[in-house]
Amino acid sequence: MPDLTLSKMGERGFDGPLFKAAAKGRAHVDGGAVRGWLESVVLASLLFCEVASAVVGAEAVFFSTIVAAWLVLPAVVGLKNVLDAGCFYMLISLGIVVVISVAS
Questions:
Q1: Which of 77, 51, 80 is nearest to 65 (CA)?
Q2: Hey, what's the torsion of the CAs at 73, 75, 78, 81, to 10 degrees?
């Protein structure tokens, strides 16, 4: 249970261990809005490239975009969350393959 008593300054502040841990785990603490926008554009373009290569049937390009995504993910989400984000990205990639194969 977090300590909700008055802080040393005499006010109820955000200096507890839960707040510090949450602030430390944020992905965009120092990046700002432009970085978040850029990360979204990079991942969306990689997914679009996967869809385009799956539609055309270019397996080498499809594989290259997956490798590029795994190389970019640590910079986008951080090293702590790279496996979770990578698994989610691979599920989306699998969905792309299934949808394209069913459609054709």
A1: 51
A2: 0
Torsion sign across C-alpha atoms 44, 46, 48, 54: negative
Query: Has residue 19 been placed in a domain?
Result: no
Burial class of 16 by CB neighbour count within 10 A (0 to 12, 13 to 18, 19+): middle
Residue 18, domain member (yes or no): no
Q: Write out the chain's pLDDT in tens, 104 residues.
A: 555 555 455 455 555 444 444 445 555 455 577 777 888 888 889 889 999 998 998 889 989 999 999 999 898 888 888 899 889 999 999 999 999 889 88
Q: Does 55 fall in a domain?
A: yes
* pTM, full prediction: 0.62
For the chain, the residue count is 104
